[in-house]
Amino acid sequence: MKNKLLLILGLFCLFTAFRSDRPVTTIFMIGDSTMANKSIVGGNPERGWGMMLPGYFTEDIRIDNHAMNGRSSKSFIGEGRWNNVLSKIKKGDYVFIQFGHNDEKADTTRHTVPGGTFDDNLRRFVNETRQRGGIPVLFNSIVRRNFVKPLDESISKDTRHEAGATEQPIEGNVLFDTHGAYLDSPRNVAAELNVPFIDMNKMTHDLVESMGAADSKRLFMWVASNSVPAFPKGREDNTHLNIYGGRTVAKLAVQAIAEAVPALAPYVRYYDYVVAQDGSGDFFTVQDAIDAVPDFRKNNRTTILVRKGEYKEKVVIPESKINVSLIGEDGAVITYDDYASKKNVFGEEKSTSGSSSCYIYAPDFYAENITFENSSGKVGQAVACFVSGDRAYFKNCRFLGNQDTLYTYSKNSRQYYENCYIEGTVDFIFGWSTAVFNNCQIHSKGKGYLTAPATDKGKEYGYVFYNCKLTADDDVEGVYLSRPWRPYAQTVFINCEMGKHILPAGWNNWNKKDAEKTVFYAEYGSTGEGANPKARAKFGRQLKSLKGYDIEEVLKGADNWNPTAKGNLIFEVAR
Asked: How crowded is the C-beta side of 466, counted as CA atoms within 13 Å?
């Protein structure tokens, strides 16, 4: 019972390493449709910039977006939406406030007067936020895409209609204001009450005008007919943003936020692409993000954030997609359920190599906080991650499966795993590559073998485990450290803590007596109930020194790759 409790506690500590238990600061967002979350039904591409904001903050910041289509500062209060937000604010939270588009409307339920009722409502948001211990930030409205000079000084109305439904006026090169004095109220109230102010109108005006009349349509809801199920007749809309526009405007906003609100700057993050199942990213699938990476982008890394969610897809990172960093939010899982004996479309078995949930062929791949899973169960060989590319680096990742979980495939691949969790039953770390596992947990779910290296003849190193913990389910016993898939297999455990599930003999020859003469199986400084140097199989060794076993020495190759020195650089670039 005691051992079972310790195992549960250990696993709890491991899994909580993939989520933050620190206090989370909430950013509440109140505003109109240009900020709001949108339905993604029918492939709807419309996005409010606030919907895209989570992809620009670390998980220490939670975005709670209450902005709503069609609301003004008046109707947001009148419908009780503000009181709902107010009840949730705690000390240190932020409230981002952006109204104007609908305050301009003439109907009595929404209309406010700049310099009068509009300003009064903004003051109320600010003062009541502060009374709750929150921090208000005021924004003015994003620009409308209007390259046609108004006939008079009246505020322009929102226009949206089916594609080609009306004849479009001739557009020029100058972007004209459509909000009038409604842009000044947030600025004036911010100055009066000493509140941070973000001039969203100027930023978006400069962006849209610089892109020009034609190219700026890429930001807005200009949808061709028969291209999106949500809008079979298409749409022409100069007010509301699409996916690209939402991400672009959110980036402008967060850059300004980091400057105007320095306390939030440490939590800002930038990625080239964001994958999110809720529509808050550039793509819904990891594979779509990978496909968008430019081929052979040699001078820069392409960084991809995978937001929380289970992505059931087979992911392939081809050789041309070099220098990719895949960063997961807590709970980001890439999973699939293929297995070796499963039939393909031709009725043939997929094979071990064909069973993987993720394939990594590109060099200089970096993954952090990603779970790679094969969910097919105990059905024989079923790979979670197949790694072939050279200089692959995994940090705080999990590899979940049973038999053959992690396939270190290429003979010329060097791989580094730091603070990772790898589980399985039989041969669940296997292959030809040189791989280092540093401070990892290697967890047995059943009787079997931790590793099955196929190290090529003449290779200096195979698998090297540093400061790892070898654990198991409570009822598991009879586990070997390794057996040789190929005759020159190499596995070394250095300063590892071994549970009682590890057999005294430690090493298995896979019924290949001749392999005992060619394998290199060794330990140094093993501890725990499974450490039993005197009882080990005689073809295993106890190292007398660690000369030649520095991590940088094992992985350096001909190009002196050193992930322990350059890993922080990779990490920072990924941010």
From this structure: 15
Identify the pLDDT of residue 471.
Answer: 98
Cα(357)–Cα(337) distance, rounded to whole angstroms?
Answer: 7
Active site residue 404: yes
**Bridging pattern class, strands 160-161 and 235-241:** antiparallel
SS3 373: strand
471: CB partners within 8 A, 6+ apart: 7, 10, 441, 442, 443, 444, 499, 501
The residue from 404, 474, 514, 550 that is catalytic is: 404
How far apart CA 441 and CA 517 sit, in angstroms, is 30
Q: Which long-range contacts (CB under 8 A, 24 or more apart) does 541-544 make?
A: 543/492, 543/494
Read off the pTM.
0.93
Out of 427, 456, 473, 559, pick the active-site residue.
427
Sign of the CA dihedral with 523 first, then 529, 535, and 539 last: negative
Rounded percentage of the chain residues whose pLDDT exceeds 90 = 90
Tell me the Cα Rg of the chain.
29
Q: Which domains does the chain have, with CATH numbers?
A: 26-267 (3.40.50.1110), 272-438 (2.160.20.10), 449-544 (no CATH)
